[in-house]
TrEMBL record:
Organism: Halococcus hamelinensis 100A6
Superkingdom of the organism of origin: Archaea
Protein family membership: Belongs to the UPF0173 family.
Pfam families: Lactamase_B_3
Molecular-function GO terms, alphabetical: hydrolase activity
Gene3D superfamilies per the UniProt record, alphabetical: Ribonuclease Z/Hydroxyacylglutathione hydrolase-like
HAMAP family, alphabetized: UPF0173
Residue spans crossing the bilayer: none
Keywords noted in UniProt: Hydrolase
Domain Metallo-beta-lactamase residues, every copy: 7-197
Keyword field contains Repeat: no
Protein's recorded name: UPF0173 metal-dependent hydrolase C447_07988
InterPro entries associated with the record: Metallo-B-lactamas (IPR001279), RibonucZ/Hydroxyglut_hydro (IPR036866), UPF0173 (IPR022877), UPF0173_UPF0282_UlaG_hydrolase (IPR050114)
Amino acid sequence: MELTWHGHSTWYVEVGDTSLLIDPFFDNPHTSKEPADIDEPDYVVLTHGHADHIADVGEFADATVVATPELAAYVEAEFGVAETIGMNIGGTVECDDAYVTMHRADHTNGIGMDYEYELGMPTGVLVSDDQPGPDGTGTSFYHAGDTGLMPEMRDVISPFLQPDAVALPMGDHFTMGIWQASIAADWLDAPHVFPMHYDTMPPLEADPEAFADAVDERAADSEVHVLDDDGSFTLD
């Protein structure tokens, strides 16, 4: 599994011959790419409907969008997306060589100046190369979405979904900050941890090396990887 971070919460994930783009938003300082520079993904996976997570969906209108039913219907109507898969919390859908499992995130999900659209529950997603379950032996990547610290990380996601790598927001203000994100890393107990959702705008100024130090103190068995400039990581 190949993981590439394009800044903010935007990840390009390759599982076998299948590619998935999570939360496309390229107007951020941690990428030098434009949407046109990205290989067309097979799937676009959306965690929720805030603009900094769906802004560039329309640039990948030929991909199949995977999201909650409310959000899938919204981007189909507003962005001209041709194919969608509506799914919900706790579900798993097979996307060619990949599986996408949805879990809730502690956040909001309205959109528009007056929040005239309510787009269902915000989510995190687990992308894996095997069906999650008691006999699942595959490799998996947990994208936490925009979330606060929540006990399901410790009580459900870690023991039952068993992610090998996790991407955690740590920019504070709208999500967890460094301290709470380091607790999340401890609870999730994954070998590989990636910071995301930081330094995109003034309220999100945060030092990823300080996050790495906090995780090292609290979750010594997890290694933090600070990616930048569209950096990639191969998850075996």
